[in-house]
Inverse folding.
């Protein structure tokens, strides 16, 4: 089903988004609680519609993050109100997962709590982290992100990858 609504483009950290309420999300895909693959148009743009995963807010709602290309096609920016068309992407196929980098695997093997929490993460969260790690170019970036990942996976409350972590989740 296609959801058609008007919303305000806001910003979370550095990410522009529009909030999709729990009731609205139920219209798109009843009972869906994990990242939801959707197609989106803002004021009828872009054509064809943009593919994206809406991210759960934790209360049944979702953040619909808006890529710059989508906003530019519609001539919209943070603070603007726009009309949104959002529908479930029935053709979505999960892409190939990035391999676990050796430096991350070794750190997990050396920390049983972090490894257990890693294995308890939902597959899409693991995939997101591995995709992020694959994009790290420098040894300094790898080292800092490895430290932060192992810390939050070990149960230390903190922020990693734009999320608050508690008890390794």
């Amino acid at each position: 089903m296609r959801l058609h609504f008007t919303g305000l483009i806001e910003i979370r950290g550095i990410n522009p988004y529009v909030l999709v309420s729990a009731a609205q999300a139920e219209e798109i895909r009843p009972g869906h609680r994990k990242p939801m693959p959707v197609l989106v148009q803002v004021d009828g743009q872009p054509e064809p519609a943009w593919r994206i995963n809406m991210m759960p807010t934790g209360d049944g709602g979702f953040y619909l993050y808006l890529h710059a290309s989508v906003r530019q096609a519609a001539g919209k920016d943070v603070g603007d109100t726009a009309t949104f068309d959002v529908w479930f992407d029935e053709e979505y196929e999960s892409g190939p997962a990035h391999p676990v980098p050796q430096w991350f695997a070794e750190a997990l093997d050396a920390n049983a709590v972090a490894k257990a929490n890693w294995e308890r993460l939902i597959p899409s969260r693991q995939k997101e982290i591995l995709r992020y790690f694959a994009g790290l170019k420098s040894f300094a970036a790898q080292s800092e992100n490895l430290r932060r990942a192992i810390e939050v996976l070990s149960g230390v409350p903190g922020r990693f990858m734009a999320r608050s972590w508690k008890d390794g989740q």
Summary: The mean pLDDT is 93.
